[in-house]
Amino acid sequence: MAHERYEIRRVAIVGAGLIGASFGLALQNVLPDASITAYDKPEVLRKLRERGLPWNAYEDLRSALPDADLVYVALPVSATIQMLPEIAANCGAHALVTDAGSTKSQICDAAKRSFTSDERTARFLGGHPIAGKEQSGAEHAEAELCRGAKYSLIGDASGALRDSRTAQFVELLHRIGAQPVWIDADTHDWALAAVSHLPQLV
């Protein structure tokens, strides 16, 4: 198994809105000694400071990434796709990069162009927490947002879990109360369109 000594000690949250900040709060509860770094726009980082969160805050993406064991990307889909090449170029080779975007096919296709399957390099894992609330923004983030919620992971569990980075992330999801579900990107997008996007459109 690759990266047998991999541990989630340093986490970079790229996009500290409702989902990203909620993940960070949940992480604090289960890994209180972890170092958390947040990257976002100045006004979003200001909201984190107003909540008194002890996170390192950066407006420069490159400064937020190099030492991270886990990079959690919680940006809009278009922004995630746009920033994946820069994330891949600046994160450590040992890192696991995962996203929380609601559309998986486009993001995973983009990730294939920036990340390789070589276990000696950073690994990408597509994900999507099926959780949220009516209010958006870091000021509404809560540690229990994902508790009891399904959490889509893109890929085949039998293969993905051979990498210790993925295995530890899945364990972390269980610890924050989420329920990981393995699925392929196209099926995820079809299912989400049927149960979420289509009813909203109607």
Give a structural overview.
- With about 200 residues, the protein is α/β, with parallel strands linked by helices.
- It has helices spanning about 20-30, 40-50, 60-65, 75-90, 105-115, 155-160, 165-175, 185-200, and strands spanning about 10-15, 35-40, 55-60, 70-75, 95-100, 125, 125-130, 150-155, 180-185.
- The chain has a six-stranded parallel β-sheet with strand order 3-2-1-4-5-6, with helices on both faces. A three-stranded mixed β-sheet has the order 7-8-9.
- Strand 2, helix 2 and strand 3 (about 55-60) form a beta-alpha-beta unit.
- Helix 4 (about 75-90) runs parallel beside helix 5.
- It is globular, with a radius of gyration of 16 Å.
- Mean pLDDT is about 90; it is low at about 195-200.
Q: Which segments are poorly predicted (pLDDT under 50) over 5 or more consecutive residues?
A: 197-202
Q: Give the strand content.
A: 15-25%
Seen as an oligomer or otherwise, the chain set is single chain
Strand arrangement across the biggest beta sheet: 3-2-1-4-5-6
The end-to-end distance, rounded to whole angstroms, is 47 Å
- Major sheet description: 6 strands, parallel
- Rounded mean pLDDT is 91
**Dominant shape:** globular
Strand element count: 9
- Helix and strand content put the structural class at alpha/beta
The helicity comes to: 40-55%
- The radius of gyration is 16 Å
Give the topology string: H per helix, E per strand: EHEHEHEHEHEEEHHEH
- Helical stretch count? 8
